[in-house]
Amino acid sequence: MSAVMNTVKPPRKRSHRGDELTAWVFVFPVVAGILLFNVYPIVFSLYISFTRWNLITPPTWVGLGNYVHLFTADPTFFLTLRNTLIYAFCTVFIGIFLALSLALLLNMKIAGQSLFRAIIFVPVIVPTAAAALTWAWLYDASSAGIINAGLKFFGVAPIPWLTNTHVALWAVIIEALWAQLGFNSVIFLAGLQNIPEEYYEAAELDGANAWQKFVHITLPGISPVTFFILVTSLIAAIQVFDIPWVMTTGGPANATQMIVIYLYLNAFRLQRMGIATAMGYIVFMTILVVTFINFRLQKHWVFYEETT
User: Check: CATH 1.10.3720.10 for 65-301?
Assistant: First the structure.
């Protein structure tokens, strides 16, 4: 028996080094892709933001010169920043109010409810450029523009929606509100349907009216959804490019020029890559600060249902 046991060899241990090598073989393409297409562009663009570079000659180090120039010697930068903040404030907060109001209507038990929900969601599936071009046609100051044709029918003079510096930005904001209304309404609708009916029934037994139920049940119940829409809408609004670019290309007289449009013009038309990347990091820091503030404030108004 002992002789047989002596002839049986113990199982060989697998080489941990070989396992690690195999793992790295599979992981390396992913790591290389992240380093090449994510980390390197971020590091390189940060370096470029401290240089003067026109894509042809070698970059020249200027330190904080690009940032100082933007905040002290470039009035267009402040104009685009103002336009962006106005656009973001109006599209986000007015958009949340409109989307919530529409979601409350769509949540009612009415005939054709599914049809109305589908119609409201149509702007979401329409390509942004196509929608912006359509609205530009609706805003046309000539008789071809449906909006001005309707105003003319009621005896109102045509309004130069996209060529008047006092009106153009609001015309772009109206189109943006329409474009995002369907998506936000559907998100709000999902939040409304997630509130248990028992809460409303208990409130009715206590004698609560419709406004009290809305304030004390509906708003707290959809606060996580509201927080999600607030954060994502602010991020999208600060980075907006497509809608104002397609409708007005930033005009007239920079009235609808947003900060990302100005970034694009500096980079690919004026070939001021240092200035453009500096603006890119200013946009990044703005989004970072706004998002951080929202996350810090959420504990005061966002209510999450505890689960056991």
Answer: yes
